[in-house]
Prior knowledge:
Blueprint: H1 2-13, H2 17-22, H3 24-48, E1 81-85, E2 96-101, E3 116-122, H4 127-149, H5 152-157, E4 159-160, H6 179-183, E5 187-193, H7 195-199, H8 203-224
Helix pairs in contact: 1-3, 3-8, 4-8
Amino acid sequence: MEQVLDFLREIKVNNNTEWMHAHRAEYERARDTFKALSQEILTKMQVIDPFLRGLELKNCIFRFNRDTRFSADKAPYKRHFGVYYVPGGKKVVGAGYYLHIQPVDSDDPDPLFSRSMVDIGIYMPPSKAAKIIREEIYYGGGQQLVEFLSQKKVKQTFTLDNADPLRVLPKNLKDSPYDQLIRMRNWDMSRTLTDEEVLADDFVDRVIDMFALGKPWNDFFNNVLDGADFESAF
């Protein structure tokens, strides 16, 4: 993993096709190392979470090339490796387990996406899926989420994504003890990782432990959306 982090540090300052072509072998070693680690995690998670059984790594791992069509930043490559284990693959809307590998960058103004992290839950669901989730929370399902969030180990491990909540609650979902959860746009939580944690010998085991801790959270959303057919933003 040290070679993976070294390569990602290099791509930050050499993000162009000429450099990549000259250092293709370094990229392939880093990519293959990340893929092997990702496969090891997937294999172990398929034992823990039945929703992931039958899932193939090719449907979880993200491309390293950036889509620059709608971005002012025309750098052709990402500065991280990412893999998202979600039932049906990353193109399907559901709650999953995300691993993001990126060297700590103290110069980056975004403290979350300037380092490695794990994330669990559902991110950027389409409006129809969000409507189903909010209604399930309102009509009693919110208690299950509240009980999960109240666990000491969960509080010590994850930070809940409270960014950009709904300003106005849907008319039919007002006056609920779960207002905060209903207002959410993304039902996910994350934990950032230091470079030292990524390089530790027990890194895979620690990622598995965090994902396993988050399984009840993901189970709630995957049970709610089971059978629904929505296309993910990814």
